[in-house]
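Students often ask why inverse folding is considered easier than folding. One informal answer: many sequences map to the same fold, so there is more than one right answer. In these notes we will look at a single instance of the problem. The structure comes first.
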């Protein structure tokens, strides 16, 4: 699988993000759906990654710089055809590696509290994320769960 920085111009990626947004609004009230649309994901503080197997889009994930030391994971999504194939794990490992290379110290995220989001929360827990309070611009919300983890610095 190839994971690359994506400029969000391809139709496959846009369709996957539209599916992501539709699911977010279907499972959470509008004021609790914090997924970003394509235009918002093109912001300069966001790096957007897409994962491909040949010409088939497998998934996507973005990292958003909050401060020079802190990033947020955004828009994690696996295509329907690639679910339960390890794509999310590979995307998450890639994002954590990039964050470490760029010198970030903390990675945080917001995800839903409903059962629909349980697989995502399980994945984040597996990678050492722990539950925390709201960060950045977020407020306490019964439909949201906030998670964070420190990045391990390695000597080279």
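Output (designed amino acids):
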């Amino acid at each position: 699988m190839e994971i690359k920085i994506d400029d969000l111009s391809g139709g496959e990626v846009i369709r996957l993000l539209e599916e992501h947004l539709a699911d977010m609004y279907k499972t959470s009230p509008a004021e609790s759906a914090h997924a970003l649309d394509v235009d918002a994901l093109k912001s300069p503080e966001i790096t957007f990654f897409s994962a491909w197997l040949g010409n088939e889009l497998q998934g996507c994930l973005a990292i958003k710089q909050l401060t020079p030391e802190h990033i947020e994971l955004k828009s994690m999504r696996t295509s329907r055809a690639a679910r339960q194939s390890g794509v999310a794990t590979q995307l998450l490992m890639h994002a954590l590696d990039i964050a470490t290379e760029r010198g970030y110290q903390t990675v945080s995220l917001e995800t839903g509290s409903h059962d629909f989001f349980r697989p995502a929360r399980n994945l984040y827990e597996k990678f050492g994320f722990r539950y925390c309070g709201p960060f950045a611009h977020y407020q306490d919300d019964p439909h949201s769960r906030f998670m964070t983890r420190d990045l391990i610095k390695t000597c080279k």
